[in-house]
Amino acid sequence: QVQLVESGGGLVQAGGSLRLSCAASGSIFSIYTMRWHRQAPGKQREWVATISPSGSTNYADFVKGRFTISADNAKNTVYLQMNSLKPEDTAVYYCSAQRFKVTWGLGTQVTVSS
Known about the structure:
This protein is mostly beta strands and 114 residues long. The chain has strands at 3-7, 10-13, 18-25, 33-39, 46-51, 57-59, 67-72, 77-82, 91-98, 102-104, 108-113. It is built from no helices and eleven strands.
């Protein structure tokens, strides 16, 4: 059973950058498909990016070219580098790990001021 802890959120001005981290423990990290999602106030949670065990990545259209997902298997950590942030990126960001089922972290708040 994998456990996930997100970190790296905070307050940033529009156009700025943040790097989120998701530290995994309790299982072999490299066998999981890892994803980042976000949930803005009053909205449903939405998918942001995926990295597979093979290292292939996919992104939601609204973050393509701005966000980058990566993984460091030696550190059991997945990252989300967020550049050119916009106020509409304000949300709680969650990571998830999927093998046979999906496990979620508790999230980290990202606030982008205009």
